[in-house]
Amino acid sequence: MLYLSSCKKTEPSKMSPTENSPNSLVSSRIHPPLALLGSSCRLQLITGTSSTDPAIYRMASLFDYILLVATDILNPKNRESEQSNGLLPTVPEEELKEPDYIPIAGNIKIYSLKELRKATRNFCPGNKLGQGSFGCVYLGKLKNGEKVAIKVLSSESRQGMKEFLNELGVISNVTHPNLVKLLGCCADGGQKMLVYNFIENNSLAQILFGNSHSGIRLDWRTRVKICIGIAEGLAYLHEEVRPPIVHRDIKASNILLDRNLNPKIADFGLAKLFPGNMTHISTRVAGTLGYLAPEYAIRGQLTKKADVYSFGVLLLEIVSGRCHTDPTLPLEDQYLLEKVWMLYESGDLESIIDKTLQRDFDAEEAHRLLKIGLLCTQDATKIRPSMSTIAKMLKYECAVGDKIMRPGLITDVMDLKVRAVEPIQLSPSMSPSVDNSQVSTLALAGSTLVENP
Prior knowledge:
This protein is an alpha+beta fold. It contains 13 helices and 17 strands. Helices cover 30% and strands 14% of the residues.
């Protein structure tokens, strides 16, 4: 197991004595060539065997290469020749702090910048698949003919390096049919890139909210299949991975669909490893408003049930064909969850089901899915079911029940946290991701989170 840390300038003679303590991640089992280099970004090999294990030395050349590449990120001289391409990220001073050690699987491939430039035709705009809060994604074709999706982290993102290391660490250690597959990474020339297998049909958001430009129509059975797949992928992260993983940014744009319209959960840049002996983690608020659980948005208390809440909102979107927030609608109709709750109380859930289905759906099943969505978004975390239970509900393996209380609504968050700030105009399709270290003001204009200066 390889441990990749964020960057810190050190000298071998000044290594902290605690780094060799039995309880630290960096122990006497570190592969010597990696442990003693001690410069800028450090890679540690943590195994259950002694440092003399031949397997460690067979892997050493690869690990040493990664170390040298990671070190190059902080070397201005090495970066000068790459500045002209406009892609090169810089590492902010804030990131040159105590490293967070992240486990990296040893089977990831290291790609050179030259190789990825060739694969994307020098990052041609025509190869761009999309753009998110942390950078762009390009279609690439490797020399063996394999198509890949290359995520280039933005040079303007303050959290770029941290997200790069985090996503690399989290996704390299998990495998599930409903998760994207990480093939490798590139840190050559100071770049921060992740290489994934190419998913043919792009994101669920583009198909669901994209005015049918994709040409793909999601029929009812396909929507149910997508819901089940996402639920099973999250159940795997929460209950089968050790330590469990909380995604923190489940939303339609982070669900990719393959050629058979099977869902793949993507974008693990905000994911958190969740210690099994803790009831919650107090952390910075990160994610997308409209999908954020109230206890997390207000108090920064993160549990697996935050993902459950986000999934509930996504489930309502899939059934209704509507985005969680639509500022073009009358105020009483703008927030999807609030609207669904109102219709549930009035016994008129069917009126929210996507009209493009043209009544070609199972009404009873649609009502069932909407009720599951409301259960997932209950204000009290203990009432929200686990993701494995949700998957069973979706597959009719357990009952849903009718004891549904008022969910935690986005308007409740507004009442508690909104202060006088200048409104921000957003298009209906925008759902920006945020990562705020000192959230004291929550300004909702569409679905954006604003940090107090």
